[in-house]
Amino acid sequence: MLEVQQLAVNYRGVCGLDSVSFQVSPGQLVGIIGPNGAGKSTLLKALLGLVPASGGVVHYCTCPLHQQLERVAYIPQRSQIDWDYPITVWNVVMMARTRQSGWFRTPGRAAKEIVKAALERVEIPNLCDRRIGELSGGQQQRVFLARALAQQADLFLFDEPFTGVDKKTEAIMLEVFEELRSQGKILLLSTHEWGQSLNQLDRLLLLNQCLIADGSPQQVMTPENLRQAYGAPLGNPLHQDLETSFFC
């Protein structure tokens, strides 16, 4: 189980997260939603120690998560990746196996088979010799999904995975998420996506610095919760648009 207790982040006196607490059991797919600047990406980074927490603890299987990062696969937002870096698709995915094989050792047969299987699962084995900067947005996202699969992690963190991808890539990603969930993995993903796709998630965390609501999509996406998160009073056109995009 992933246990987050009173997690807080401050940037030079500005609150990024305020005492956020939740638990996630194996086999759950949890979405993190909220307005821009709500702390969604900050939450994922704070879980991993990529931004310093000013308070709180993060445990996985009763031990501090930062002591077992080899069990975590993290896919950042596409805007945070240097797509001009001269590296091939194959080598990006193979990076997931370096912890096991070592940085200066030639990958063995087992590692190559794992990478090959991951590329095949996301339907891009034909792109293994291409540089990542030559790919479309959807193809690039599939490369990093393949890398996460090749890592064979237990906890998967995805930051805005659906941004800038095509419908086929989105469908592949949702299929993979379901497979990982059925294997007892824990998946956390931040998203701006609304509509019926949210119903495919087990839970939602509605965030705006603090945790406003935690529960099933139907429990979380209520008019009052949306008003608290997005600051739009009841009857405001913005609020109506948010409701319509989910409930219609």
TrEMBL record:
Limits of the ABC transporter domain: 2-234
Keywords tagged on the record: ATP-binding, Nucleotide-binding, Transport
PROSITE patterns xrefs: ABC_TRANSPORTER_1, ABC_TRANSPORTER_2
UniProt keyword Secreted present: no
Pfam families: ABC_tran (PF00005)
GO molecular function, one term: ATP binding
CDD domains xref list: ABC_Metallic_Cations (cd03235)
Keyword Transport found: yes
Superkingdom as given in the UniProt entry: Bacteria
Bilayer-spanning residue ranges: none
Annotated family: Belongs to the ABC transporter superfamily.
Alphabetical list of PANTHER family matching this protein: IRON TRANSPORT SYSTEM ATP-BINDING PROTEIN HI_0361-RELATED, METAL TRANSPORT SYSTEM ATP-BINDING PROTEIN TM_0124-RELATED
The protein's name: ATP-binding cassette domain-containing protein
UniProt organism field: Myxacorys almedinensis A
